[in-house]
């Protein structure tokens, strides 16, 4: 597979001014997507996944966030370019699909009209050509009887079909990058599997890079090439999907996987505790207050530098040194690096014996 860098995000920081002061939703995050690959951003609700991906094309809704950093798409910085230039890229070369097709569609217009409208925003095509293309796209995303359904209204489509229509709308500009934010979360499991399969086929056909946001690691296992694990606005860990599932390094990633019964996880009801207040995040590692391995060194300074623990797998955790076994914190002979002991109990969750 060719592996040219399509999207390169560096030191992305997005803040919101709120009544309670500045809220930092995304705090100095880096990630990249290559042509033809699927990168999944995972993490609990409130981690900053949506804000991070919506910062890429500056579509953050009101109040507008303050976005800083660099977002290079094919070498051009999207954050530095004028809105008029970005508008040509957004919805065309870079397309978004969202969780809820219900909200993204206009109920007063036929589905066909909405697809042709999306087409004609970016392409100078006649009405007949646009219709033919729209029908073709509806067909490609698996809507049976596409030409007959062209004049149907959104309410005449099921949830899964609506999401297919949204995908058709996203494909109008033959995008090179598709950003999908929880596109299957609102669907039942069978339909979800169909939509994931469709995205997979289309990715192959269009040779798109896909940036996929989800909190569902089961979905990630199905589709990801690489994973970026976010927590409270920071990246905790990243790496190839097999590495992350086989030997997750960060205690947060390990705990997320522990919540997956299909992968042998035994935690029921999610990781204990809650995310820190984004107005006032803790010092050190953001996850330390909920981490069973946290010690003094975890609660001081900045989020730790990322350390490579296997090729392409990097973890932001004080317990790691380059070349260390990615599962070191889980070993029975785990030795804390700092002075005050791993199981000091202070603000942490006590370590379960395994
Ligand atoms: N427009 C906004 N104004 C103020 N705060 C916001 C805004 N949008 C998001 N936030 C805050 O930013 C943080 C990150 O939110 P975000 O929606 O990116 O999380 P997420 O990881 O996508 O969660 P979920 O899985 O629930 O979609 C949250 O604390 C959220 O409340
Ligand atoms: Ni979100």
TrEMBL record:
Keywords: ATP-binding, Cell membrane, Ion transport, Membrane, Nucleotide-binding, Translocase, Transport. It comes from the Archaea. It is a peripheral membrane protein. It is found in: Cell membrane. The keyword 4Fe-4S does not apply. The keyword Translocase applies. One of its GO terms (molecular function) is ATP hydrolysis activity. Its main location: membrane. GO terms for biological process: peptide transport. It is an enzyme of class 7 (translocase). GO terms for cellular component: plasma membrane. It catalyses: Ni(2+)(out) + ATP + H2O = Ni(2+)(in) + ADP + phosphate + H(+). Its EC number is 7.2.2.11. Residues 7-257 form the ABC transporter domain. Residues 328-354 are annotated as: Disordered. Residues 338-348 have a biased composition (Gly residues). PANTHER family: NICKEL ABC TRANSPORTER, ATP-BINDING PROTEIN (PTHR43297:SF13), OLIGOPEPTIDE TRANSPORT ATP-BINDING PROTEIN APPD (PTHR43297). The complex is composed of two ATP-binding proteins (NikD and NikE), two transmembrane proteins (NikB and NikC) and a solute-binding protein (NikA). This is Nickel import system ATP-binding protein NikD. It comes from Halorubrum tebenquichense DSM 14210. The lineage of its organism: Archaea, Methanobacteriati, Methanobacteriota, Stenosarchaea group, Halobacteria.
């Amino acid at each position: 597979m060719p592996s040219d860098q399509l999207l390169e995000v560096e030191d992305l920081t997005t803040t919101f001014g709120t009544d309670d002061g500045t809220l930092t939703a995304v705090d100095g995050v880096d990630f990249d997507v290559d042509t033809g690959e699927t990168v999944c951003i995972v993490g609990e609700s409130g981690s900053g996944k949506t804000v991070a991906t919506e910062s890429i094309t500056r579509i953050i809704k009101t109040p507008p966030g303050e976005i800083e950093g660099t977002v290079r798409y094919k070498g051009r910085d999207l954050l530095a370019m004028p809105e008029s230039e970005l508008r040509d890229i957004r919805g065309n070369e870079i397309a978004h699909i969202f969780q809820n097709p219900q909200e993204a569609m206009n109920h007063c217009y036929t589905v066909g009209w909405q697809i042709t409208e999306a087409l004609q925003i970016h392409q100078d095509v006649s009405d007949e050509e646009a219709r033919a293309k729209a029908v073709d796209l509806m067909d490609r995303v698996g809507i049976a009887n596409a030409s007959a359904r062209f004049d149907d209204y959104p309410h005449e489509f099921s949830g899964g079909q609506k999401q297919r229509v949204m995908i058709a709308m996203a494909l109008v500009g033959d995008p090179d990058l598709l950003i999908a934010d929880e596109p299957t979360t609102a669907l039942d499991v069978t339909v979800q599997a169909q939509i994931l399969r469709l995205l997979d086929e289309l990715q192959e056909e269009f040779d798109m890079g896909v940036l996929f946001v989800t909190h569902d690691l089961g979905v990630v296992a199905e589709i990801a090439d690489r994973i970026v694990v976010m927590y409270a606005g920071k990246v905790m860990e990243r790496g190839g999907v097999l590495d992350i599932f086989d030997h997750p390094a960060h205690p947060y990633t390990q705990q997320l996987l522990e919540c997956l019964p299909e992968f042998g996880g035994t935690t029921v009801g999610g990781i204990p505790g809650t995310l820190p207040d984004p107005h006032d995040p803790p010092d050190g590692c953001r996850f330390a207050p909920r981490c069973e391995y946290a010690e003094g060194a975890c609660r001081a300074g900045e989020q730790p530098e990322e350390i490579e623990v296997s090729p392409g797998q990097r973890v932001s955790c004080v317990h790691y040194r380059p070349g260390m076994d990615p599962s070191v914190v889980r070993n029975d002979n785990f030795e804390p690096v700092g002075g005050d002991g791993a199981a000091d109990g202070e603000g942490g969750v006590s370590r379960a014996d395994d």
